[in-house]
Amino acid sequence: MPRDRPRKLWARILAALTALLVAAVAGVVLAYPSVAATTCPGCYGLTELEQGVYAEPGLSEAQRAQIRQVAADARKRVATFYGTRVSSPTLLVCLTESCYQHIGGGKERGIAILNRSVMLSPRGVNAVISSHEMSHVELHTRLTSGAEVPQWFDEGLAVVVSDDPRYLASKSSPDRCLVAPTVPLPATLEEWTGTASRDPGTYAKSACQVSRWLHQNGDHAAILSLIERLNAGEPFASIVKPTLPSRTEPFPPTHQ
Question: pLDDT exceeding 70 applies to what percent of the chain?
Fold first, then answer.
């Protein structure tokens, strides 16, 4: 009988650890359904349309074809900008608000999750929004050192990669800037969320800063050089130095 005591003790410990693990997983599912959904799309009722692309069931063939086309166009925009694409984020697409809410979405058009997945709401099923979110994943996948970049640069770059006409002038324009920043742009995610919610023009201002920096430093080659230098340990602030216009400098026209 004494020999059975250690076995019973380990059995109790194992049972306790199992219960803790189950509770932890359940907590993640309840608190962060988007993380759980991107980890197990099928657990949330999504079906695989093609490798890495999931959508809600019951869609027509035309809707399924639309999603496939959006995914292809978004991947092409990212690959065109960088010259190649190194990330392969899982894409979760909802064409109804109920589906999007079920997988943890909110009022946004789309969102990148843990730099490995992208969720699209019914308002974001297009090449612009999907490539914007994929841009975030691509940049952070390339930053193998884990180097941080300011949120304004990450968002402004995503606007450029996605070629978002809401925040950028056409590619034929000598200066794509629509709204020039007059004060330093938000650097952290928390600062960005607060500022962008109060001022929708924050995206245009960030895109202005990034597009001008790219143009002055070799366009697409500039971002590849930046990533290489960041991965080598150089701080972002020593490579990218944002400039603000003087009070007397005329601003480009604002497009609404």
Answer: 83
